[in-house]
């Protein structure tokens, strides 16, 4: 082989080696382009670099960077807004060919995989801050509160100024019955977004429901309504507070406003009915309950509270029909069994009453009220020995409640344990003085104590019947 041919052969070999090397490396390199834009001036960005590692930067928007790749590659780009609200967008391109884009409120993720040199450039998906909130809501609906809290924290780690995420965090803490943590979360939401009417409304709910601070709740609802004058829930919540403070005219005004804004809102009629009932205007209350049922024929609350109103009017058959309907719609509604038992007692159907009181304790064995009802009524019906365990259970669950000690005292007296009965009745007398019930009931218990101390049982048939019908 002459020298010229040898040189040509070497050139061929070198070219072949280069071709083989390029083939092994997946062909020529490509540019993966990340872009972020939005209404904010800055964003917190994380992206997958050429080595497959996540890089984190705080960048000025709009922002772009390029990553050189020459093989199949999985990528992720996240962007968190530096503002409490506002749109943010991400986009990913391969050699100026768009793979996809996504946008959201305060936070967005673009992720997928690419195949350089392939007719199929790759896969792409995006997730927004709203989708993460929806995921958290689904977990909340399933009672998975710790998981929901973790999901919210994921958002806040990337978008620490996302006001709405703090609102959701507050809701989760509400469900956990952690009022201090809920108020802290709502406070952060308001600091980030002073116009967050939901945060003010929810802060009012914590004050109203978890803390019983109606005056402070009204302050919060006032602000929510100032920010959003058509906020029906804020009017209904404020009406509840006014009613509990005895300011019934203000409560009615809020109830009327809610109905004006949403005339087909069944719960607006329910809330106004509560106010009418507090005013003793039972016919108006019934009219509103009827309207609520017309709007929502399966509304359990409407039947339950209409039944209670009928009971207040001594219309026992109508009340019984409503409680039956509640149990038909919601067989585990413990209040319906408790209220129906009271109706059965008024109708003289004592076995049915005891069966319902017993069912209530099975449905909610941790509530002392239901054990107390079973104890009291069982004792009055001459079966104190049979239900003494219910009496003990009610006191064990709530030992400082005078009413439960009073019921147990009755059972003790009827089973001949006068000493224990005297002790329980004395406890009740002291409790009644602290709870403004002494004049009504405390003096009667003092007369029972005197009789028991003299060795006499004060509970004849007439007294038991009188107590049964109270």
Entry keywords:
Serine Threonine Protein Phosphatase 5, Tetratricopeptide repeat; 470 residues; alpha+beta; 5-stranded antiparallel sheet; Immunoglobulin-like; elongated; 4-stranded antiparallel sheet; 62% helix; disordered N terminus
Please tell me about this protein's structure:
The protein is an alpha+beta fold and 470 residues long. Among the domains are: 26-130, Immunoglobulin-like; 367-470, Serine Threonine Protein Phosphatase 5, Tetratricopeptide repeat (Alpha Horseshoe). Helix content is 62%, strand content 15%. The chain has 21 helices and nine strands. The protein has helices spanning 3-24, 129-141, 145-158, 163-175, 179-192, 197-210, 214-227, 232-244, 248-261, 266-278, 282-295, 300-312, 316-329, 334-346, 350-363, 368-380, 384-397, 402-414, 418-434, 438-453, 461-468; strands at residues 30-38, 42-48, 54-60, 63-69, 73-81, 87-94, 97-105, 107-114, 122-128. The protein has a five-stranded antiparallel sheet with strand order 3-2-5-8-9. The chain has a four-stranded antiparallel sheet with strand order 4-1-6-7, with no helix packed on it. A hairpin with a 2-residue loop joins strand 6 (87-94) and strand 7 (97-105). Helix 17 packs antiparallel against helix 18 (402-414). The longest helix is centred in the first third of the chain and has 22 residues, at 3-24. The termini are far apart. Mean pLDDT is 91; it is low at 1-26.
